[in-house]
Amino acid sequence: VVFVLEKVHILWEPVLIPATYRRTLCSILDRVFSRINEDVLQLDDLGADETLQ
């Protein structure tokens, strides 16, 4: 994830207006961390389901 974000930074920061770049990067980070959080919560649910079985 960090490698991809670094490449996004290198490619898009010089091209975009700073406010647009910041807003876009924040949106990307929000989606990435939301997805990671969702996946981690699903792992906890899977562990609980296996324990109950």
Percentage of residues assigned to helices: over 70%
Give the terminus-to-terminus CA distance: 34 Å
Structural class: mainly alpha
Q: Which residue ranges are poorly predicted, with pLDDT under 50 across at least 5 consecutive positions? A: none
Total count of strands: 0
Q: Cα-atom Rg, whole angstroms? A: 17 Å
Biggest sheet record: none
Order of helices and strands: HH
**Roughly what fraction of the amino acids lie in strands?**
under 5%
The gross shape turns out to be elongated
Rounded average pLDDT: 84
- Helix count, per DSSP? 2
Task: Provide a descriptive summary of the structure in words.
The protein has helices at 2-12, 18-52. With 53 residues, it is mainly α. 0% of the residues are buried. Residues 1-51 form the ZW10 C-terminal helical domain. It comes from Nymphaea colorata.
Keywords, please?
single chain; Zw10/DSL1_C_sf; elongated; ZW10 C-terminal helical domain-containing protein; 53 residues; mainly alpha; ZW10_C_2
Fold topology:
Blueprint (H helix, E strand, L loop, with lengths): L1 H11 L5 H35 L1
In short:
With 53 residues, the protein is mainly α. Helix content is 87%, strand content 0%.
